[in-house]
Write a sequence for this structure.
């Protein structure tokens, strides 16, 4: 049963309502380990599905191009102020539609086409929008990429510094999508200052950990900070760009009118709700449990012979190289999904395989922590992953039975852990 309930959808479009219900049940019955996913609260769901979706509000509070903003302006200002307070920043823009547009706004605020930008290489854990070749950011700008060390799986700031002083980029990105270790924002800031570059911190994955005090903050180090509002922050599918006061005007002009029109007011309201939730003491405890679960899961996987990039994790994310298990990441991820464990295949540093059929798996613990799983349960999760990976390596005859067994055991476990937003019908 969806919470809030969806009686009108069920009446007007039962086919779609059935698919929504099926997706909710799937989320309830699976161990969700995709590092960019979570469960939002019923309050966030309600805000996202509110009548605010009816209103168009191009511009900013007090400077709109449409009338009727008497309630919208206070909602956006509330979200802005909550973001500023929670992250300790001087300026926040809550209008970007998602993470990639938020990052594009950073380019538009600080760079011109053809300028040099420096970011972590995508196969090393960076993001497409940090200058990768298939992204507009790699086509419209001159990308320079740093890597992780082959022997440690970690970024070497001495190597980053040498590259930055050689190439003199106008913008340096730190952060990414598959970085299991703590980001040294102060170290990156020192390099950016020496190279005369703007430092942008992409904290999309770790924003909730930063808000909860489980990861150091880039505030006070980075000139500009971008983030999505879902993942560990446990909000709606939206984004924010935060900055020092010096860059506030450039950031705002880049978001609107530079890249987009009217903001999605229902999303803005849901961001405000999520930011209020993240300011509570229990959210800090949640953020630290995410890390504790990730560390416990990483240790249990290591004990079962899995090769983890960098040897473990400092945050919510684990990157596994399956080469020593004799199975690529994609078939392993597909088998695990059938067995009730949802994660994604992922390239690993220096991966000899193609990006769509890579060697690794990416794992995150934000969603299972929301469901209430604890570090003491992580060895069992690791055992399930190991069982399915081993069965997949042995071949199809072995896999189906193991998948059914593990899926049943997972459903039994999760039945005792409520899911925000949905519950089985009594």
């Amino acid at each position: 049963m969806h919470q809030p309930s969806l009686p009108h959808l069920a009446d007007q479009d039962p086919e779609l309502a059935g698919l929504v219900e099926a997706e909710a049940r799937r989320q309830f019955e699976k161990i969700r380990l995709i590092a960019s996913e979570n469960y939002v609260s019923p309050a966030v769901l309600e805000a996202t599905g509110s009548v605010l979706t009816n209103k168009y509000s191009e511009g900013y509070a007090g400077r709109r191009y449409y009338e009727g903003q008497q309630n919208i302006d206070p909602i956006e200002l509330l979200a802005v102020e909550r973001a500023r307070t929670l992250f300790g920043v001087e300026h926040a823009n809550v209008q970007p539609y998602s993470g990639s547009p938020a990052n594009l706004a950073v380019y538009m605020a600080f760079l011109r086409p053809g300028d040099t930008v420096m970011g972590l290489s995508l196969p090393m854990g960076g993001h497409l929008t940090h200058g990768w070749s298939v992204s507009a950011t790699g086509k419209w700008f001159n990308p320079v990429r740093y890597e992780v060390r082959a022997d440690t799986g970690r970024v070497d700031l001495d190597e980053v510094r040498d590259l930055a002083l050689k190439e003199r980029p106008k913008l340096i990105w730190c952060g990414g999508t598959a970085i299991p270790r703590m980001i040294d924002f102060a170290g990156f800031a020192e390099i950016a200052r020496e190279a005369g570059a703007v430092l942008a911190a992409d904290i999309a994955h770790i924003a909730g950990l930063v808000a909860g005090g489980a990861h150091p903050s880039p505030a006070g180090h980075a000139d500009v900070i971008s983030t999505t509002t879902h993942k560990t922050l446990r909000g709606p599918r939206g984004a924010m760009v935060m900055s020092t006061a010096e860059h506030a005007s450039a950031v705002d002009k880049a978001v609107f009118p530079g890249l987009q029109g009217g903001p999605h007011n229902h999303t803005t309201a849901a961001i405000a709700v999520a930011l209020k939730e993240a300011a509570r003491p229990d959210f800090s405890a949640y953020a630290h449990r995410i890390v504790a679960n990730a560390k416990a899961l990483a240790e249990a996987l290591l004990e079962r012979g899995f090769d983890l990039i960098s040897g473990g994790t400092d945050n919510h994310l684990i990157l596994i190289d399956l080469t020593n298990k004799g199975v690529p990441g994609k078939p392993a991820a597909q088998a695990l999904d059938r067995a009730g464990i949802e994660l994604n295949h992922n390239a690993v540093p220096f991966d000899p395989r193609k990006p769509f059929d890579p060697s690794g798996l990416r794992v995150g613990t934000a969603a299972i922590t929301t469901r209430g799983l604890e570090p003491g349960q992580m060895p069992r999760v690791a055992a399930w992953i190991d069982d399915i990976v081993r069965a997949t390596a042995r071949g199809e005859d072995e896999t189906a039975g193991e998948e059914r067994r593990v899926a049943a055991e997972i459903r039994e476990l999760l039945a005792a852990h409520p899911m925000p937003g949905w519950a089985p019908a009594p």
Q: What stands out?
A: The domain at 287-414 is CATH 3.90.1150.10 (Aspartate Aminotransferase, domain 1). The chain has two domains: 46-278, 287-414. The mean pLDDT is 97. The CA atoms of residues 232 and 375 lie 17 Å apart.
